[in-house]
């Protein structure tokens, strides 16, 4: 695939010189697809309630900057997707729309603020929702609400789903979700509830390859509605929710 092609609904990214050197790399992609959930039909024909993200964002995924971060970088990519939303929909104290930070910038920020030791920079250490909240507050002056959801269908269906409905209705920003047994980071951009359970609209950062149109990403399942009951019922989950009310333009 020609990585220089620019799809409708995509945006060119200037990665600058911040790419970490880390063994294998793929061709540096200068385009990222935007709003990759749009056009995906609701999972229920007659839902009781559906709540979705408000505003534009870019889809960050493994290797999109030429850095092969497969196996450990999913949390960083979800943070970058969230940052892209903040840069477009939320004005910081400095009134500047800052581009999403690179992986090295995220790691260095965590070292500088004292959350991680110096050896964390240029490492392959993963990050979770707690680190995500620190990074987004550092770069965008946006605090995040962290919600801990114990494992089990009842907790996920009630606590997580209700929190997500409230979040999208009030704040409209993407959410990061991760757990212990299920420790794969997920971007959540919507929730849909019916009489027999709920679905999460998941933007999965684990895709590795050149840019794809959103219809192809949806076809391959990288952007999809996932039944809450399909989540690991023995894993706890944490939600990182940027608190952006009254900050938008």
Automatic annotation (TrEMBL):
Pfam families: Peptidase_C78 (PF07910). Residues 49-240 form the UFSP1/2/DUB catalytic domain. Keywords: Hydrolase. The keyword Magnesium does not apply. GO terms for molecular function: deUFMylase activity. Belongs to the peptidase C78 family. This is UFSP1/2/DUB catalytic domain-containing protein. It comes from Zoarces viviparus (Viviparous eelpout). The lineage of its organism: Eukaryota, Metazoa, Chordata, Craniata, Vertebrata.
